[in-house]
Amino acid sequence: MSSWHRLADTAVLLDGFHALKHAVRFGAEVRVAVTTDRAAALALADELAPDVRGALDALLAEVPESAYRALVPRPHPTAVAALAVRPAREANLRALARTPRTAPVVVLDQPRNLGNAGAVIRLAAGFGATGVVTTGPLDPWHPTVVRGGAGLHFATAVERLAVDELPAGPVFALDPEGVDIRELKLPDDAVLAFGSERSGLSAGLRGRSDRLVSLPMRAQVSSYNLATSVAMALFHWSAGS
């Protein structure tokens, strides 16, 4: 698998059948794809993704299980893996800056948990959000984030930016002290900002906010999971649009 080793340091790892399926469906440039059981992978495509079955048939190469395990740090139960080209930063920035914007941008401010970030990207893609931006050191294209996002990074714009680089639009930052979100209509060009799982909004993001908003929560419940909070906010936006 010389091509795999040549590309591995710069390409996006698509870990599992569903990640590859979504990447192909949303136009990713997949350079190499492997499986330990080609017939089983194509049977999955027949069942779950007939729209990309032909593309997967052309891409997938069967390799011994020992070779597959040597290529992938955490082998996926579907025994499928691939490498794709990461979208250019310039393309993501253009998508985030497009006007008029018809769906919000989700901002994860200083996130720490890779799995949570992946789950948020999967949610954002499902709701048709314009994109997901992270601030801070976490790379939103880390293999664990891509695995958590099931390859749906390719269905929306995903980029890491500084707070002063956020796309234009009113910033609604989620905070327990904010106005109840049910009292507001979130505009399509909203920038929805969520603080880190442990410490909440950073001072920089709080200062950039136009409005602090809160989610309904029973007294004495300390917090929601980050992905749950994003889902609630996006559902509120979609229901009011």
Automatic annotation (TrEMBL):
One of its GO terms (biological process) is RNA processing. This is rRNA methyltransferase. It holds the Pfam family SpoU_methylase. Residues 105-235 form the tRNA/rRNA methyltransferase SpoU type domain. Keywords: Methyltransferase, Transferase. InterPro entries: Alpha/beta_knot_MTases, rRNA_Methyltransferase, SpoU_MeTrfase, tRNA_m1G_MTases_N. The keyword Transferase applies. GO terms for molecular function: RNA binding; RNA methyltransferase activity.
